[in-house]
From TrEMBL:
UniProt xrefs under PANTHER family: CYTOPLASMIC PROTEIN, CYTOPLASMIC PROTEIN-RELATED
InterPro entries assigned to the protein according to its UniProt record, in alphabetical order: Csp_YhjQ, YHJQ-like
Gene3D superfamilies in the record: 1.20.1270.360
Protein name per Swiss-Prot or TrEMBL: Ferredoxin
CDD domains: DUF326
TM annotation in the entry: none
Length: 129
């Protein structure tokens, strides 16, 4: 259960990061790796930037919206590249990346006008039961 939209956003971005890392690793072990060079580059770029973006948002960085805007662009490019490949894994990855792009774009540009006061960060409740 998400305690607030910050946590939900961070988890969405982290899920995209992990998925892209897994996909890049998976495709490096397939026989058609040479036909996926651009996809592999995009997957790695997307994973790296998602990692940074989730950290910036989690710490309420002044630059969180800026990096989220860049993350939206990279995730969208990765999603579109994955759509170019017909395999089920690429199609699934595309959906995850495009969803992450939409959420990052909403955070960076549209839906969330005020990020919040860094002195009063969002509360994240962890359950370690």
């Amino acid at each position: 259960m998400h305690t607030n939209w910050y946590e939900c956003l961070v988890e969405t971005i982290q899920f995209c990061e992990v998925n892209c890392e897994n996909m890049a690793t998976y495709f490096t072990r397939t026989p058609d790796i040479t036909t996926r060079e651009k996809q592999l580059q995009f997957l790695r770029d997307c994973a790296d930037l998602c990692g940074w973006t989730s950290k910036y948002i989690a710490r309420c960085s002044t630059f969180a919206k800026d990096i989220a805007g860049l993350c939206a662009c990279i995730c969208e490019a990765c999603g579109k590249e994955c759509l170019q490949h017909c395999d089920e894994e690429s199609q699934h990855c595309a959906r995850i990346c495009l969803h992450c792009a939409k959420e990052c774009r909403n955070f960076a540009y549209e839906k969330f006008e005020a990020f919040g006061d860094p002195a009063d960060p969002p509360k994240v409740i962890h359950s370690y039961e």
